Task: structure prediction
Amino acid sequence: MSDKPLSGIKIIDFTHVQAGPACTQMLAWFGADVIKVERPGAGDVTRSQLRDIPDVDALYFTMLNSNKRGLSLDTKKPEGKAVLEKLIKESDVLVENFGPGALDRMGFSWERIQELNPKLILASVKGFSDGHHYEDLKVYENVAQCAGGAASTTGWWKGEHSEPTISAAALGDSNTGMHLAIGILTAYIGRQKTGKGQKVAVAMQDAVLNLCRVKMRDQLRLDKLGYLEEYPQYPHEKFGDVVPRGGNAGGGGQPGWILKCKGWETDPNAYIYFTVQGHAWGPICDALGKPEWKTDPAYTTPKARQPHIMDIFGTIEDWLKDKTKYEAVDILRKFDIPCAPVLSMKELLNDESLRKSGSIVEVPHKVRGSYFTVGSPIKFSDLKPEITASPLLGEHTDEVLAELGYSQDQIKALHEAKAV
Ligand code: CAO
Result:
């Protein structure tokens, strides 16, 4: 057994696609023994979705299933069910994100699981919470972003592209998985006190809403005031009765916007994000070479600036015209201005700092050679998560069965019955 913080915790990883796998992958990085259970011959659908190399596990799968062991098991066959029962008896956690009711239909209701192992923690992701009027719906990422409030508050408020907009960040999937990981660890610590397992559930709608908390704040303010002073609609346009989409506005108390830099005409990412911190107006004026703004009453307070904040951003864009995004940030950082270049995936993939910190890692893989993936975003002083390859379908089936006490003959029989 290794000395990683979660070593000794055995997790049945009955997850697929992204929300569940993102959760169990993180627990595996930190030392848990995560056994990915998949249907023989097929496996997680992401193994074959969006492949870049024929017949090789797709990056969609490899990037969400590292550090796990692979067990192929048909849990609809009696022999397969018997293996799962044994596994449940010997494990600490079962994580699943099947469609509503699938685990019950398989014969593994919460009541049955408790009979098999009262210490087991059952962790589930569903689209909507138990008892919700949409609890029967199957849900993918973008459905959750719409149901959780993200889509109605993202994007542009007028013009051709003013419809609700989806974020590229996996607010519905990986975000829900991260919430579930916190729930599992909480239940695990709880179990140390009570000796009992419990059911942990996170609905994708709730996880998205949790990240949209500030938009709920804005709805409450709008209901009271009828306007939102930090939105680009203020003070020249009318507000309706729901939180409008705010384009690239700051969202908090500090106005901000995405501004063009040198080369924007041909480079889709030649931009920076610029924030106007209320208390740092002086340094902004110094950085831009506009000392007169420091004493001009039209500029000295956030309230005075807000009616013409877009003109101020226009002046800053003028200043940025002959500077690349990197040059601009190098100047602005000297004045303590919160800003960053807009980075493409290509730039992030090749970013030396991210490689050095382990946020982007290269992982050797038995079949594909090696692949780049996103490493642990959580850094510890006494743990450096080492990212290892995702398992091939059923790669560790015999090993796991042997650990469960199956003899070589019994393992052979399970293969012959096509149960594994
Ligand atoms: N052996 C035998 N059967 C297996 C199995 C195994 N090892 N693993 C899964 N199955 C079966 C299940 O028992 C279920 O069968 P039934 O429907 O007959 O009971 C079926 O495979 C899986 O059903 P599903 O509803 O989970 O799969 P789907 O592709 O139709 O839907 C998804 C996918 C993601 C929409 C659905 O799982 C879902 O809504 N999950 C909850 C929300 C979620 O996590 N969504 C995020 C996914 S990431 O974008």
Summary: The first helix runs from residue 19 to 29. Residues 17-20, 37-39, 73-76, 97-99, 102, 105-106, 125-127, 138-141, 173 surround oxidized coenzyme A (CB under 6 Å). The mean pLDDT is 97. The CA atoms of residues 64 and 159 lie 38 Å apart.
